[in-house]
Amino acid sequence: MCGIVGYLGDKNTKEILLSGLKELEYRGYDSAGIAVLQDGEFSIYKAVGKLVNLEEKTKEFITDKFAVGIGHTRWATHGKPTELNAHPHLGESSYVVHNGIIENYAELKQKLQEDGVKFLSQTDTEVIVHQFEKNLLACEDGFKAFSKTISELEGAYATLIVTASLPDTIFFAKHGSPMLVGVNDEDEKFFASSDSPLIGLAKEVNYFEDGDYGYVTKDELVIYNKNAEKTKPNFSQLSTDKLSAQKDGYRFFMEKEIYEQSDVIADTLIGRLSDEEIVFDEIDKNLFDGINEIKLCACGTSYHSALSASYMFERYSKIRCSVEIASEFRYRSPIMAKDTLFVVISQSGETADTLETLKMAKRANLKTLVICNVDNSSMVREADACILTRAGIEKGVASTKAFATQVTVFWMLSLYVAKLRDSLTTDELKYQIHLLRETPVATKVSDEIHEKIKRLSKRYLHGHGFFFIGRDIFFPLALEGALKLKEISYLHAEGYPSGEMKHGPIALADPELFTIALLPEHLLYEKSKNNVEELSARDSTICAISAKEFDKADDFIKINPCKDYMLEFFEMMIVVQLLSLEISIRLGNDVDMPRNLAKSVTVE
């Protein structure tokens, strides 16, 4: 979710970099920084938190002549959100910014340290600048040194490097993370990780392909492809609509955020998975000492992720787990036992009802933990411990990637507690960690399934309501699917446990009742199928979501075959989100700004 900007030219470099970073704020970040090289001297500024903190630090800094500059907004992955870990990162006389993951950074770092290189940060990024300077000493040619450095990196990256020995040059490389370069008639060069920072500055842009690398000066733009062949830039006109540019070609932010879930889940996992255990550097293992129950408290979508968590804590961690709706909990006279860990969940960290329950738990002297997406939010400051979900900013009011990352964090946390309580064998833990590693793939949206859902959606625009049904952990997913649909389509939808149909709701079954049935192959499939058949026999219209063909379904959405029900959970999550999106679009609704709703509910 990090953002990159770069500039080479005669204008106000500081302001161009800062305004570019501001255009990337929507991507999410917890620190920011810029490095400017002018008159052979570097000026470097970093700040934790919002860009206003960086602006305050740079208010006396003036750039009014030719300079090269790079800037970055960072979302913490390797290392905590501190100024030392913020980009740009320093070598002896060079700076680097980087998006992505350097997978072989530990190996490179060890060799550099053996050569006497001192590292200041906990990040993978810092190895790039030290490796570049090591190669620069050997090659004595900046571009050869940069090319060699890129060839030694494994993983995903978009990176810019500036060095004092070449004060009119910015080196760039792109592999797996987005980046583009813009130009205008004044020989200025602009870099960014998306279009919006360049609107109004560049006339044309070149979108780099994977494997592209090269350099710019005032007079040159030199690009080599992944085969080390020199290529010409492929310029296109830049959009003039900043909001559209932020959407990266998607129709709505919600659609973009559904597609981003694979990447943000990968970000959520970074640095937290080893071969045999889950690593949460941000929490103390003593947090769970003396704990015999976990109580989860949340609202809306976060409540559904908490319900999902309750299945995992009891199944994997073998610990009692209860789930509370925050708006109800705060007005009860709840029993607050001291052996309870009180966990609150919130995308924003400011949800009023949930925040009040956290304060109740603190007054009762319970240990507290917050699962949140926003560092330094009210809940983060209030709780004893915090785990950040790393979802980035979510502009669509109807939450998607916040839910995905919350469930991912809870899955990891249930395994973390399982290790502490010795409730899973080593082989079982390894298997679960293997599944976690496969989750980003399970959440990739295929063109085939999206097109299928687009076509199906036209059949679900009327009727008197929807039942989303599922068993076990798929019941919370059914609740979440129904919530998504009602939020943005304004159609009536309910989530139910599949086994509850015959206890009353089946009275509503008829052809105008649409049943969205979650049928995981690896969890209670036969029982769930029987429940759906009961609805089908009463003429309910059935849309089944499964890896296994279901002949009683009127419509069938086939997910990829999975080895475990947890991967099926994430595959089906994508389907119910897309179904809600496409129905809403066909109804002509504003998907990102549904009526009567706000993104963060900070009032009672």
Question: In words, what does this structure look like?
Answer:
With 604 residues, the chain is α/β, with parallel strands linked by helices. The chain folds into three domains: 3-246, Aminohydrolase, N-terminal nucleophile (Ntn) domain (Glutamine Phosphoribosylpyrophosphate, subunit 1, domain 1); 250-442, 3-Layer(aba) Sandwich (Rossmann fold); 445-604, Glucose-6-phosphate isomerase like protein, domain 1 (Rossmann fold). An eight-stranded antiparallel β-sheet has the order 3-2-4-1-10-9-11-15, with helices on one face. A hairpin with a 6-residue loop joins strand 7 and strand 8. The longest helix is centred in the last third of the chain and has 22 residues, at 565-586. The protein is globular and about 80 Å long.
Output the strand order for the largest sheet: 3-2-4-1-10-9-11-15
Distance between the termini: 31 Å
Report the top-level CATH class of the largest domain. Alpha Beta
* Architecture per CATH nomenclature, i.e. the level-2 architecture of the largest domain: 4-Layer Sandwich
The percent of residues in helical segments reads 25-40%
The radius of gyration is: 26 Å
The CATH superfamily of the largest domain is known as Aminohydrolase, N-terminal nucleophile (Ntn) domain
Instruction: Give the DSSP E fraction (strand runs of 2 or more residues).
Output: 15-25%
| Sheet of most strands | 8 strands, antiparallel
Q: What is the residue-mean pLDDT, rounded to a whole number?
A: 92
Low-confidence residue ranges: none
How many E strands? Answer: 25
CATH fold type of the largest domain: Glutamine Phosphoribosylpyrophosphate, subunit 1, domain 1
Can you tell me the number of structural domains?
Answer: 3
Class derived from helix and strand content: alpha/beta
- Coarse shape: globular
Number of helices: 17
